[in-house]
């Protein structure tokens, strides 16, 4: 133990830090999930929005081990969180000291440092369309023509510091663990046509 490193809780009160002090932290299962689907039609125009959210799930942000510690894969880019790392003149921080030493008191032990609230609200889809009056289309033997523009994943509201709090674990043991997988929240805009003859 040195100043600036993690301090572990003596959870069993024996005045020693041992494996017996380990406790279970976090829960990847949300308290609840929710969605809201809004639609509106007016004079040929249609507007729809799909919101989706999760509340009360925890995420084990394993990417912090790569991004916040120089003793863990030094060649990689590091997080801007390190600008607020512990120093003798910056003691009021939750970011540990910057060092290359490998120690259980730095990046090599699981701790509450990696657990974050993964609650979020996403605007999954926003679509604006216009259906041309069928009487106009009869002249060209088209029964329906609708043009639309759709935005996907336009925003996510979350306090999670990783790329995407909506994690899909490959197995039960990986549920709620962010290993740096490519996020599924990329913003996208689509333009399309629905056509019926």
Largest sheet: 5 strands, antiparallel
Give me the Rg, rounded: 25 Å
Q: Which descriptor suits the 3D outline?
A: elongated
Q: Give the % helix.
A: under 10%
What does the average pLDDT come to? 88
Strand order of the largest sheet: 1-2-5-6-8
Annotate the secondary structure layout.
Layout: E1 32-42, E2 45-55, E3 58-61, H1 63-67, E4 115-117, E5 120-131, H2 134-137, E6 144-158, E7 177-178, E8 188-196
Parallel strand pairs: 3-7
Antiparallel strand pairs: 1-2, 2-5, 3-4, 5-6, 6-8
Q: Can you tell me about this structure?
A:
This protein is mainly beta and 197 residues long. It is 5% helix and 34% strand. The protein has helices spanning 63-67, 134-137; strands at 32-42, 45-55, 58-61, 115-117, 120-131, 144-158, 177-178, 188-196. The strands form 2 sheets. It has a 5-stranded antiparallel sheet, with no helix packed on it. It starts with 31 loop residues before the first strand and ends with a strand. 12% of the residues are buried.
């Amino acid at each position: 133990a040195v100043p600036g490193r993690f301090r572990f809780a003596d959870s069993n009160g024996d005045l020693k830090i041992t494996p017996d002090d380990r406790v279970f932290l976090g829960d990847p299962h949300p308290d609840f999930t929710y969605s809201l689907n809004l639609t509106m039609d007016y004079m040929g125009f249609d507007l729809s929005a799909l919101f989706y959210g999760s509340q009360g799930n925890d995420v084990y942000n394993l990417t912090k081990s790569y991004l916040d510690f120089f003793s863990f894969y030094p060649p990689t880019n590091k997080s801007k969180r390190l600008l607020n790392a512990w120093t003798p003149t910056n003691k009021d921080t939750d970011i540990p000291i910057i060092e290359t030493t490998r120690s259980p008191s730095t990046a090599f032990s699981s701790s509450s440092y990696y657990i974050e609230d993964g609650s979020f609200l996403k605007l999954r889809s926003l679509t604006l369309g216009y259906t041309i009056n069928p009487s106009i289309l009869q002249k060209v033997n088209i029964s329906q023509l609708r043009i639309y523009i759709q935005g996907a994943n336009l925003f996510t509201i979350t306090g999670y510091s990783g790329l995407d709090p909506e994690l899909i674990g490959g197995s039960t043991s990986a549920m709620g663990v962010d290993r740096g997988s490519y996020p599924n929240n990329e913003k996208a805009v689509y333009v399309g046509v629905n056509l019926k003859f």
